[in-house]
Amino acid sequence: MKESQKIKIGIVDDDLLFVQLLKDYINKDSRYQTTLTCTGGTAFLGEIETNAPDILILDLRMTDGSGLDVLSALSQTDTEMKIIVLSSFYRRSFMGQMLKMGAHAFLSKEIELSELPAVINAVHENGHYFSNDQIEVMRHQLSNKLPEFHAYSKDDLTEREIDVLKLVCQQMSTKEIADALFISPKTVETHKTNLMIKTCVKNMAGLVIYAVQNRIIDANEIVLLDK
């Protein structure tokens, strides 16, 4: 695969050994290239204007600018960067807050390394990743306890926007949605943009939560990726 076609990965973590091991593992896959590593959020935010990755793997607890600081700063920008929060400070109950702050996936550092490529691909292609236990959280918590994300009601969404939203929740890529609805990929992206504007969410994960909260889909209908 040409260098220009590879998914660019950034790693921000203050554990230098972990960063090196993760970088080596990622770079063994021809689909990815680690283009940026930093040991703190402050240094990372100073780099992204000229060297922004496609996917950021971000720790939460760091001394020089925490992961929360990074999420907060990026929420004020129009970046298309996707963020995978990978932390030893992982609690299922934090998932909704992580997604609300702009993360596209939230994982424990205890996951198997072999699981990471599937997560990266899901986030890159679909805009979000949910694991089995996180789906359980959504079933029992998100639809009732998270604050509303949106300024519009679901009645303000068009029929086609709802069609697109339901397929987003099926983890379908833009091309797959386009084929299913017999529209162009560009039109699908337009619908996704309109959905995020109307619902005031920051990413595809937020759209999934919106769909659950507003009973457009049942949490049991969300499709999980095969590992």
Automatic annotation (TrEMBL):
The keyword DNA-binding applies. SMART domains: HTH_LUXR (SM00421), REC (SM00448). Residues 150-215 form the HTH luxR-type domain. The modification 4-aspartylphosphate is found at residue 59. Keywords: DNA-binding, Phosphoprotein, Transcription, Transcription regulation. Residues 8-124 form the Response regulatory domain. PROSITE patterns: HTH_LUXR_2 (PS50043), RESPONSE_REGULATORY (PS50110). InterPro entries: CheY-like_superfamily, NreC/VraR/RcsB-like_REC, Sig_transdc_resp-reg_C-effctor, Sig_transdc_resp-reg_receiver, Tscrpt_reg_LuxR_C. PANTHER family: DNA-BINDING TRANSCRIPTIONAL ACTIVATOR DEVR_DOSR. This is Response regulator transcription factor. The lineage of its organism: Bacteria, Pseudomonadati, Bacteroidota, Flavobacteriia, Flavobacteriales.
